[in-house]
Amino acid sequence: MSSPPDEYYTDERWNNWVDRLREEEIDPESDDSARLFFNLLDDATIAIAKVVTDYEDGEIDADAAAEELGRIREIVLSEVEIDEEEKLTLVDGIQTSLVCAFYTAEEYIVGGPADEGTVEEHLRAAAAAETDEEDLDTALAHCVQAGTLIVEGAELGMDVAEEIEYGLVADWVNGLDSLGRALADPEVVEEDE
């Protein structure tokens, strides 16, 4: 049974997370802050994973899947009004991570998994494009190709993820890791965890 429109993800759900973030004390070194970051990220990637899964199962067609992904993207990538700089940085990190997850889902629906290369090869190429050439378009394209392989069932080896220097590719890999977990076990993240 497919999810009716607006059931994959709602403005209310995103806003509940953002409200919780506004209320929390954020400490970049604390496990609670890290958990909140990953819960927010995972909650959105679970919605993306459900769209992809419903598409794969024939519950929705490619157009409906693209429309749902666009609707979810509009919700979670919209500008967030938060006064505290650390919290804005946290939201920006989540949104940056989600960009790659959205592109991955869209690419997978349109073209399926990458024809060539492995997850590791694409991620190493992405890291090189970011650090050596400062070519973010190529870096993102490689991350998306890696992502389509993850959607297809390939593993994201944490050894290669740990090699990547902090930057956009590292954020995008967070999104791919979250998407991979969501596809493997699409449990809803409870907001009171």
UniProtKB/TrEMBL annotation:
InterPro entries: UCP022079 (IPR014518)
Source species, domain of life: Archaea
Name of protein: DUF2150 family protein
